Amino acid sequence: MVAIQVLSNGILLGGLYALVALGLALVWGVLDIINLAHGAFIMLGGYIAYYLFTGLGLDPFASLPLVMIAMFVIGYLIQWALLNFLVKAPMFNMLLVTFGIDVVLTYLAQILFSADLRAIQPSYAGSNFTVLGITIPTVNLMAFVVALLLTGLLALFLQRQRWGRAIRATAQNLGAARLHGVPPRFAYALTFGIGAALAGAAGTLYGTVAQLTPYIGVPLTAKSFAIAIIGGLDNPLGVIVGGLVLGLAEAFGSLWLGPTYRDAVSLGLLVLVLIVRPTGILGRTA
Amino acid sequence: MSAAGAPMFEARQVTKRFAGLLALSNVSFRHEAGEILGLIGPNGAGKTTLINLISGTLEPTSGALFFQGRPLQGLPPYRRAHLGIGRTFQIMKPFPGLSVLDNVTAGALFGRRPEREMGKARDAAAHWLEFVGLGDKLEQPADALGGPDRKRLELAKALALQPQLLLLDEVMAGLNAVEIDEVVALIRRIRDGGTTILVIEHVVKAIRQLSDRLLVLQYGELIAEGTAEEVLEDPKVIEAYLGRRRH
Amino acid sequence: MRALPWVLAALAVAALAAVPFTLSPVLVQFGISTLLLAVLAQGWNIIGGFTGYASFGNSVFYGLGTYGTAVAMTQFHRSFALGLTVGALVSVGFALLLGLPVLRLRGHYFAITTLALSEAVAAIIANLDITGRNTGLILPLIRGDTMFYELSLGLMTLATLTVWWLSRSRFGFGLIAIREREDAAEVMGIPTTRYKVLAFGLAALFSALAGGIHAYWITFIDPASAFDISLNVRMIIMAVFGGAGTVIGPVVGAFLLSGVAEVLASTVTGIASLFFGLVIVAAVVFTPSGVITAIRRLPRRGLATFLDAVRETRL
């Protein structure tokens, strides 16, 4: 049945979307920083994985840790050396600066990598398997699993580990963070670094199921917003809900209204959520 | 126009509930024109909530509020300001980027008898700032003021609205004895000018001097009402203050 | 009222008006683009700079103005004047209607909602036949950049005069109070909702007119260019860089940044945009309140102005 196939597509897409949005939601929810360069980080992670694959033959799923470490370092440095200087400025200054970073990264990528479409295609790329009459592409399923795993790990990290708790404390209160023995500048840089690492992971997976160009940054940032808001920023698992809602909405929207309406559907949904319940599905009402 | 014989303000069975917390419960009282009504009670008793309900920042869960006989249900704060209700904030809220003068000019421009011309509004604002004793600080940035001066600024802002009912939320907190006396005198002069005043205060000496009548709130309920002498000797009131100390 | 600033302003406008008769056609074209961007920056200045609601989707008003004008002129064969009116009405109507729910949101949420709204409208227009779907519309051709230049100059002057009026009027004062502390503004008698929506409508009006002029000038429009997201960023950067909440800041910002971008565009593409991004980053770090404000502070603090700025906003 078409609907069940579409349902399956939507769910797989949703899982990946959750990871796409996770880094943005983390940085936004904890540091109250909207990183407009988030999509560019995803793009960068994808290209790093691409070159590791074509240059060193590294399977994208195997290169995930490397990509994440590289992106963590980049993110950490950006927060430490640049964004930390703007934390107390009016809100749109931060938006502008991250936008500037997005522009820099996009055109840097255009110059270094050219505008050609790229895809990471390991040997199992085209294969799929069928379950109960539904076709499931192998790569999409693997991406889905990894995405959910990373999201779950982050949630655990924030709950259990010392650094994780310190990050949450920073979100509440800069003073409290100092009590935990973590200087705020470090907590900020750490959080931003983790956000970038997660974006890098999303980029790697994205490169296996879709195509990479230097320009995918902005639409992915926009999507991440939508997902983070729909799911709600209070709970790290919110992105899973948001991702699934968006994935399913896009899948069924495509089916019922036609593929050209796909963006209108996700945006319409976003506007609706913002007006009706701004704190998101899993959010606490203020 | 108020209904004949209607008090300046009346609360009838006012209740306010916040997700599980009962902030005010069945509060009823009258506030007559020209009266200084004091409101006291331990922290968390619901005093500021009551002011928020009168000024329109919040709406009651049930019950009704009347200003000069006219129901306030559904009126947004700015309309209540136009009617003549002015308030100060306990956690002071100056317009940070603006000068002291500009802060008060807002009230002159948009209050009960709005001044439409910027120049005249600024003159009126200057007059109110003189009245509260900030006449020499007109051009200073509002967020550069110290604590006592901030309170005067809050007062001037509310006065610029030319309110008929003035709600004062702990304007004497953190002031020394001399400053308190000055503020008491100031409040008396405001009342002499024809304004009805509701004063929330912790400073018992001041509230005793000022109030024509006194209300006492505890845990959202009105537990006593009467003259200062009657109320402050009421055993329930004494127990409320000296009894269980929670916070 | 001191006469000097007015004399200077009049001279500046006169000098600008003389451009098509004295300078090269390329500069005239540059002028038109820059003037229209200045209008957008001023429009943003009204809702973002004065009222404190940083919209990230004013491109929706520009786009609606573009399409309103284009549809009236191509599908219904109306005059340019009528086209502009239609574009303005649609845009302002949209602002007043959607302003009510959207302006209830604050800060980040407001910014994103406006962006999403702009994208949503663009996506819808790309699917309608009357607007030419994704292929767009072609307007009647008219030669004469001079006319468009003077029109754009006129619009920019009007927008700037409006912002000047805001800076001295009761309405503008109310907007500033809303920006500074909305809940206090409300109890001071300022009808916040009404004022916010009006400011939004005003921004929509100027943005729409700019879109309409641009559409007739360029002759060809499509959803991607009419609702171009980068317009939002450009108008905000210009307004903030020049000085949000000031009267001429956005104009100065528009001219300065357009000039820089134009000079860079003569180099390899990609590098120009890259450099532009770096300029943005540097500007935001060192002049967080805008160029005009920094210039005002320079006499007192010299170069330390920039360090002060950094120190004020660092973690």
Structure overview:
The complex is a heterotrimer of chains A (286), B (247) and C (315). Chain A is mostly helical. Chain A has helices at residues 2-31, 38-56, 60-81, 91-113, 138-160, 162-172, 174-179, 184-209, 217-231, 238-257, 262-276, and strands at residues 128-131, 134-137. Chain A has one domain (2-276): Orthogonal Bundle (ABC transporter involved in vitamin B12 uptake, BtuC). Chain A contains eleven helices and two strands. Chain A has a two-stranded antiparallel ribbon with strand order 1-2. Chain A is globular, with a radius of gyration of 18 Å. Chain B has two domains: 1-84 and 167-247, Rossmann fold; 94-162, no CATH class. In chain B, the strands form two sheets. A six-stranded mixed beta sheet of chain B has the order 6-7-8-3-9-10, sandwiched between helices. In chain B, strands 2-1-4-5 form a four-stranded antiparallel beta sheet, with helices on one face. In chain B, a hairpin with a 2-residue loop joins strand 1 and strand 2. Chain C has 315 residues and is mostly helical. In chain C, strands 1-2 form a two-stranded antiparallel sheet. The longest helix of chain C has 27 residues, at 192-218. Chains in contact: A-C, B-C.
